[in-house]
Amino acid sequence: MGTSERSYYVLVEGTTEGMALYAALRDAGCKVRISPVPRGLQSCCGMSLLVKADDMPDVRAALELPGMPGYERIVEMENQINPNRDVYC
Fold first, then answer.
1. Angle value at C-alpha 50, between 43 and 77, nearest 5 degrees
2. Residues contacting residue 5 through CB under 8 Å, at least 6 positions apart
3. Where does the pLDDT of residue 2 fall: very low under 50, low under 70, confident under 90, or very high at 90 and above?
4. Could you tell me the CA-to-CA distances from 55 to 31, 36, 62, 88 in Å, in that order?
5. Which position has the higher pLDDT, 70 or 81?
6. For residue 3, what pLDDT is reported?
7. Residue 46 burial class via C-beta count within 10 angstroms: exposed 0-12, middle 13-18, buried 19 and up
8. Confidence at residue 83, expressed as pLDDT on a 0 to 100 scale
9. In Å, how far are 12, 45, 83, 85, 88 from 62, measured between CA atoms?
10. Helix or strand or coil: residue 61?
11. SS3 content of the chain, % helix, strand, coil (to 5)
12. Alpha carbon distance 2, 62 (integer Å)
C-alpha cells in the first residue's frame, strides 16, 4: 500500500480550537481539510483536520511552530474517502 492510500486525522478538543488550528496551518502553507472524525475514533466535538499522507511532513513541522494552536492527537488510517458515496446514478 502506497503512502497516498493513507490519511491522517488531526483530532481537536472543540470546533473553536479546530477552526483556529485549521486557519493557522493554512497560513503556514499546509494542505488540510475540515472533516468529520471517522467512525470508531473518539473525539469531543466530532471535528478533525484531514491531511493526505504526502502532506503530513509539512503539517508535523508546522505543528511544532511557536504559537500554533494545540490538538488532541493525530491518527493514521486507511483512506476513508469513498468517491462513490451518495452517487445514485
1. 75
2. 53, 78, 79
3. very low
4. 6, 19, 11, 32
5. 70
6. 45
7. middle
8. 56
9. 16, 23, 29, 32, 40
10. helix
11. 30, 25, 45
12. 24
Q: What is the DSSP letter of 18?
A: H
Return the pLDDT at 38: 83
For residue range 4-62, what is the model confidence (pLDDT) as tens digits? 588 999 999 999 999 999 999 999 999 999 998 887 777 667 899 999 999 999 999 99
How far apart are the C-alpha atoms of 48 and 11, rounded to whole Å? 5
Type of residue at 53: A
User: In this structure, are strands 33-36 and 73-78 parallel, antiparallel, or unpaired?
Assistant: unpaired
Q: SS3 for 73?
A: strand
Say which residues have a Cβ less than 8 Å from residue 62's Cβ, sequence separation at least 6. 24, 25, 28, 29, 30, 68
